[in-house]
């Protein structure tokens, strides 16, 4: 048997449900959320080659890319198959390449993605170095690069693997490994006969 209290509760709940339904009908219909605007470039340039000079007239950076797409919203550009050469004060230049990239409006930041390789050839005072990863953020003006992804660093027959890297590419070269690291160094005794 239903008690008077349960009956009263059922009537109140039914009344609240009817009032909610009636109130919902009084409200204006909801507008659908705005569809995000498609990101479209305002211009596309094929076979781009750009050189940036320092105040001393020396070449500091040289960028070559298969395709550049410029976006007016934030002034950034997307790059296909970019290749950036960074000339440092001392030592051989660094050459970075990737499948694609993104560059900020003012050129202060370059993000490389897909098969990223950054190389420096050996000279009389430095060893050859190669860094390989899937994504790398480069700040060319600061001669700085970093990633939080797995990275492999090789120099001759020596190698280091790590997760995450910060590198100051000027002289002296400094590299900070961020995560778990494995390495192999081949030590040669110059005094051995």
From TrEMBL:
Domain of life: Bacteria
GO CC terms: outer membrane-bounded periplasmic space; plasma membrane
A single GO molecular function term of this UniProt record: glycolipid transfer activity
A Pfam family the protein falls into: LptC
Keywords for this protein: Cell inner membrane, Cell membrane, Membrane, Transmembrane, Transmembrane helix
Coiled-coil parts of chain: none
InterPro entries: LipoPS_assembly_LptC-rel (IPR010664), LPS_export_LptC (IPR052363), LptC (IPR026265)
UniProt-recorded name of the protein: LPS export ABC transporter periplasmic protein LptC
Native source species: Thioflavicoccus mobilis 8321
């Amino acid at each position: 048997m239903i008690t008077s209290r349960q009956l009263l509760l059922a009537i109140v709940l039914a009344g609240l449900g009817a009032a909610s339904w009636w109130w919902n009908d009084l409200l204006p219909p909801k507008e659908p959320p705005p569809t995000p605007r498609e990101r479209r470039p305002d211009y596309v340039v094929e076979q781009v080659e750009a050189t940036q000079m320092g105040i001393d007239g020396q070449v500091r950076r040289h960028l070559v890319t298969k395709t550049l797409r410029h976006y007016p919203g934030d002034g950034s550009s997307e790059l296909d198959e970019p290749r950036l050469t960074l000339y440092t004060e001392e030592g051989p230049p660094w050459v970075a390449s990737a499948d694609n990239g993104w560059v900020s409006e003012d050129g202060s930041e370059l993000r490389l993605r897909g098969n990223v390789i950054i190389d420096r050839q050996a000279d009389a005072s430095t060893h050859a170095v190669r860094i390989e990863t899937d994504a790398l953020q480069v700040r060319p003006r600061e001669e700085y690069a970093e990633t939080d992804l797995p990275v492999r660093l090789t120099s001759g027959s020596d190698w280091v693997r790590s997760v995450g890297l910060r590198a100051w590419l000027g002289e002296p070269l400094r590299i900070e490994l961020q995560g778990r690291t494995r390495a192999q160094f081949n030590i040669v005794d110059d005094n051995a006969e």
